[in-house]
Write a structure and sequence with these properties.
By secondary structure, the chain is mainly α. The protein has one domain. It is 65% helix and 0% strand. It is built from 5 helices and no strands. It has helices at 3-15, 26-39, 45-59, 74-78, 81-95. The longest helix is centred in the middle third of the chain and has 15 residues, at 45-59. The protein is globular and about 40 Å long. It starts with a helix and ends with a helix.
Length: 96
Amino acid sequence: MSYISEALKILREELGDEWSDEPESESLLRLYALLALVKGANVTHEDVHNAWALWTEQSNPSHPSIVPFDHLSAEIQQEDRPFLTAIHRAASRLRS
């Protein structure tokens, strides 16, 4: 198994029920795995939002949450929290 496949597997495990196995979600999972590999524990809430916004713009460019992270309400910002937590956990597992 390649290190990329391993990162994706671990991230899926860490996301658990938060993750949809829909085929169109695979590219978002890959962006999150890239964050885990490149930034590890330094991934920020804003990084997660930016990855999601990049992915979402392809299919829904007028989505109201495709704005800079600091322009989102606190409630909307928190929607990315489970993904940030999972990315941090996955990054920790990948480094050990």
